[in-house]
Amino acid sequence: MPRSAVAIALPQAEFIAVQGHLSEAGYEAICISTADELEQVLSQRDDVRVAILDGEHNFDGTLEMYGLLHEEGRDVPALILMPPRALGRVGLGGSTQSRDEYFTRPYSAESLRWRVEAMLIRVDTVPPDDDAGPIFGDAPGYAGYSVDAASDVGRGQIVIIFNPKGGVGKTTIAINLGAALQLRGQRVLLVDCDTITGHISTSLGMASPRTVITAWQENQDSGVQERFAEIARVHSSGVSVLVMGQSPLHTEILEPKTVTDAVQAARRSYDWVILDMHPDYGPLNQALFSLADKILVPVTPDVPCIRAAVQFREVSVELGIRDRLSMVINRANSGVSAADVERVVGMPALARVRSAGMLFVRAADEGKSAVERFPTAKVVGDIDGLAARLLAPVGSDGGARPRQRTLNSIGISVRGLFGRLTAQVSLGRELGQARPTIGTESRVSEGSVVAEHGGRTLVQAVQPAGVDPTPRSS
Ligand SMILES: Nc1ncnc2c1ncn2[C@@H]1O[C@H](COP(=O)(O)OP(=O)(O)OP(=O)(O)O)[C@@H](O)[C@H]1O
Ligand SMILES: [Mg+2]
Prior knowledge:
Rossmann fold, binds adenosine-5'-triphosphate, five-stranded parallel sheet, 17% strand, alpha/beta, binds magnesium ion, eight-stranded mixed sheet, 38% helix
């Protein structure tokens, strides 16, 4: 018996690829071609929990379908395919204020399964904010994806700190960002998700904390699973600290769905849930990526680290999380310009953190964050600047924009939502020339290529050669 149904308005070949992964996860995939078909399905069934729409190929139809999903008395979240560069106009606020989400081609069919899983978790655990809507504006600048946290009461932000390269400052930034946000009056849960080399608790002088693994193992007898807020311990900085586990063995209990449910639930108790990750792309990390509102990528200006960040940027496209990535340039005073790092890595930098010699180590020796121990140090100012950027209301900084509301039914506001993209999409349609390049086994369908590639199903848009799909600022 399927868990729920997902209405999918994608070209046939893409539908088949996505359907395969969704049915593996226990969802029924319903193929939709027109708004009329969607209307019929929605009127006959009440188990359609998410819809996947194609705002790239079927623009007008998508407008109508979007309206149906959100018309009076109905609020089915949509996962909407956008032209890649158009994501710059769909700010992060879109994914934090509304339950709709966005993705781009190329994508892997499997990644949609994780996106749908994450959306359903949100639907189940977070009551809809009926005063919410996506935020739109011009292309992102330095701080283009500012998080509108203060207005999102009862719905903490999930921030992941990740770079697949070790030793680049993930844990250092996670600890001190947490402390800086706490000092700014935020409720912070700092989670050490690194069961292999994690050292948040030792750096903060919290010897042998009760871990999630221990707690959940103990809970197996009682059958009542403790929440993160109950297991966490409060550090002297006021930050609640939670350690997933302190041994790389016996981690089976950290099953991705169970952990993501717990992280989602923690949003209710904290303004910020900061996850410090182990550098790997395993199933748990992938599931957590799909929940994140923002993924901060610490990058030191050296070739191995920059390569790792570029790899992550490429992987993030496949995982459908590209729009959530921002870089934090760590050890930034090494003579390499931030603009150069931004250009090479292909991510906006949200902050620069200078080299601080032994200062972080000295703070850790005392079981404190540098924010507490050396409040006037310049590097602490850098980290506080990062906290300020995360807290800044959209529209206040770096080319960020004022929020726009959308109506919950098709109409002028929904047209505003997609309107600026129309010209671009039409242009793409007029100039479209097939360029099916990926994989060896590929099927071309309605402007997209679906290919089997290294055991994965990849879907790529057929881009008109030489045409920049960036929507122009109005
Ligand atoms: N800006 C900085 N100035 C001085 N030292 C730093 C800075 N950033 C990080 N470090 C030091 O670099 C070392 C590695 O940092 P950290 O443990 O935060 O990296 P990591 O990315 O979390 O590593 P891993 O992948 O192993 O978890 C630590 O000793 C830390 O104190
Ligand atoms: Mg670390």
